[in-house]
Amino acid sequence: MLASSGCRGVDDLAITTPAEPTEVDTIIAGGMVFDGTGATGRSIDIAILDDRIVYVGEDADARFRARNTIDAVGLVVAPGFIDPHTHADTDLVSSDADRRANKAYAFQGVTTVLVGNDGFGNYRIADMASAAIESGIGTNAAWLVGFGAVREEVLGRVDREPDAAELAQMGALTRQAMCEGAWGFSTGLYYVPQNFAKTEEVVALARIATEFGGYYDTHMRDESTYNVTVTGALAETLQIGREAGLPVHIAHIKALGPAVWGHSERMIAMIEEAQASGQRVSADQYPWEASGTRISNALVPRWALEGGLEALRERLAKPEQRLAIRQGIEEAIERRGGADRLLVTGALGEVEVETGKTLEQLARDQGIAPADAAIAVLRTGDARLASFNMNPDDIAAFAAREWVVTGSDGSTGHPRKYASFPKAYRDLVADGGVMDMARFVRRSSGQTADIIGLQGRGYLKPGYFADVVVLDPESFAPRATYSAPEELSSGVVHLLVNGEVVIRGGAHTGQLPGRPLLKPASCAS
Ligand SMILES: [Zn+2]
After folding, report:
1. What is the CA(129)–ligand 1 centre distance, in A?
2. 187 CA to centre of ligand 1 in angstroms
3. How far apart are CA 81 and CA 274, in angstroms?
4. What pLDDT, on the 0 to 100 scale, is given for residue 191?
5. Nearest to 201 by CA among 167, 176, 178, 177
6. How far is the CA of 231 from the centre of ligand 1 (A)?
């Protein structure tokens, strides 16, 4: 298949160990080094020249003259973390250098973010990459081609199937994005208009990613009981992977809402059966009981969102449709565990909403039902919600699996954007004792690089790029909360991206050494 796409194999990028120099830029000395393979930590040194690691071992100071030495005694040294699911797309192309620095992630120890997740984002990968080079970004970035962006470009936000010509056009856009360096094809089949697509349409487009050796990344059609249920959506995901012939990666794996609490057991069994039959399946998870969403996305029936929020407002003006929408909202509130589990964290559009209150409280203040309070917001705007819909037992069950890696799904108004990696560390290692540091580092770096297919990243090895985090295991912790979601995390003492220091002694240096990471592909024009 590689040959038919004219695609160059990734072997061309094979890592070569350079001849050992006598002078290096930086030695990170005496830290407890976890290399990303899952191996136990060793108290050794790392030497860096330009953007590469040139040495990992003992007594680096006896081998090299170093321009800088970072004393890492008592600290943990690990490959910079890789986040397979973010929504940092717009931060990275912001005109504000502070946003492009991607500090929310840097202070978690993250040196590479994936964007284009959930089927969102910009599929013009080459444009995104040149913008990143031109203006500078603080972490590396890698792209997925989003189904939603492609479908909306060709069909708009309508509920219908594409005809053959339209499907071909969507295929051409997907192929172009893969040619330009996307690592895979992402969907958010839960979201309008992606939810209007049948499984076969998704398979047809995912096959294009297969030709390029890419993977399928999905926010599944249902994480709850909205339509096919979470296990039905998982079955669809596995089917897409089998029929399109590519690895599948499940975004922010969860069982959303009381009706499916406990279903982690069945989901894990389905995934591990698929793996036993030879299918490649992985998932990422953020360590929070609340998801981050909006009133429209969480509560409004999908048919009522066809055409977007404006069309929704027109429907709300018609009494009969309003009644049906209201009923759907009531059901969705119930599905998510009740209005007291929906915390309003931000207003969107032309609407004033009190933040820091639950939908239940907002409704009580106005003397109306929660569904009507939601509709009142939607009349002129929308609101961000932290939706407390997960059960700790399900979270723990997923977290313990070997095929689950750390992710943030970082979005505005939710602490997960600023604190998922340190929170996972506290929950799973420092306070929880569920796994050791070596496993935590592996599921936050090397394993994730392998899932994506990144070459030369995710491990501390000679010849690899010098993306390195030096953290204090005592103080590595979240500071962001649901009521103050934009607090930078603590405990990352030093952070290097492509050999350049972006955090030194706990302070950001303002450097923007991040790079666009593009999947190698050569395509006939
Ligand atoms: Zn998502």
Report:
1. 23
2. 9
3. 28
4. 95
5. 167
6. 17
User: What's the 287 CA to ligand 1 centre distance in angstroms?
Assistant: 14
Dist CA 246 CA 241 (whole Å): 5
For the chain, the first-to-last Cα distance in angstroms comes to 18
pLDDT for 4 equals 39
Pairwise CA distance, residues 296 & 301, whole Å: 8
Say which residue the tokens 């009580």 belong to. Answer: 364
3-state secondary structure 187-212: EECCCCCHHHCCHHHHHHHHHHHHHC
Q: Rounded to the nearest whole angstrom, what is the distance from the C-alpha of residue 118 to the centroid of ligand 1? A: 5
381 and 347 Cβ atoms separated by less than 8 Å: yes
Q: What is the distance between the alpha carbons of residues 371 and 378, in angstroms, rounded to a whole number?
A: 11
Which of 519, 489, 34, 83 lies closest to 284, judged by CA? Answer: 83
Question: What pLDDT, on the 0 to 100 scale, is given for residue 19?
Answer: 67
Task: Tell me, in angstroms, the distance from the centre of ligand 1 to residue 220's CA.
Answer: 8
Rounded to the nearest angstrom, the distance between the alpha carbon of 276 and the centre of ligand 1 is: 27
The overall pTM is greater than 0.90:
yes
- Quote the pLDDT of residue 12: 44
* Residue 405 main-chain phi, psi, to 5 deg: -115, 165
**pLDDT-flagged residues of the chain (< 50):** 1-12
CA–CA distance, 513 with 501 (Å, rounded to integer): 9
